[in-house]
Amino acid sequence: KVAMEETRVKIPVIYGIDAIHGVTYTEGATIFPQQITVAATFNPAHAYNMGKVTAYETRASGIPWNFSPVLDLGADPRFSRQFEGFGEDPYLIGEMGAQLVFGYEGITDSVGNPHKVASCVKHFMGYSVPVSGKDRTPAYIPEQVLREYHLAPFKKAIEAGSESVMINSGIINGVSVHASHDLI
Question: Which of 97, 146, 168, 174 is the most exposed place for a label (fewest CB within 10 A)?
Fold first, then answer.
């Protein structure tokens, strides 16, 4: 609040962090396995509990917003960030992602609770399947594949109450995702 009051235009500041497998930037915090390892258990309760503890420790660090869960479809083994997501099955990604959102925000979407944080599902969408296999490079994905495989996990997490969405910073089918009215 103080930072906002000291500025000319009085714009509030909100802090967010990438705590996708625990609050790794905070000394003494719990570090969890990466999402791919949690997915390998096929037990959504593990994702929920990971989210609940991460939310508590993130908020204890003074941060109310977490850039997680990662809901990218792990369809290309060349992609360097496979470990961040829940794998290659859209159904499993959606189930685990929704439980992580519930863990972060509470079953009743209570981000105002001092032990909860707002979630940010990412990277909407098609981020993990670029043609080159390299991070932040263009992708060519048929519309039907986008809708059937890539969209489903995001839909599930948004229905679970996720407060925000991080857009894919890349290009799909020749169009920047940030500039695509159709995708967004």
Answer: 174
